[in-house]
Amino acid sequence: MSCAANALSSSVLLADYAHARAGDKGNHLNIAVFVFEPGHYDWLVAMLTPERVADHFHARRSSAVHCHALPMLGGLNIVLENVLEGGVNQSAGLDRHGKTLSYHLLGLYLPAPAATSHQQ
């Protein structure tokens, strides 16, 4: 197996480990991501860095990405600034609120988390 094939086989789809909701504030997008299993929270925080999220959304040309940890809820609130083409009142886009962009994030492939005790 090649290195690329081996790396791909050890990657997991974020949607298999978390769910998300999205909303807008003007031209900014909020995506709240929550793990299904509490044991995966630290993995989520380590994997969804502002740099990784900005790279995944590079076509949207965000001016800044912030990831706010929500440990009591097992999630992250991710804010992408200036990605909604002006927001609801200015954009002619079909998804002016950015609701579908949470699915774009959940389509991200990440290195697999370490097995938790209840998975072994």
From TrEMBL:
Domain AtuA-like ferredoxin-fold: 13-108
Record InterPro entries: AtuA-like_ferredoxin_dom
Top-level taxon of origin: Bacteria
Protein name: AtuA-like ferredoxin-fold domain-containing protein
Organism of provenance: Kushneria marisflavi
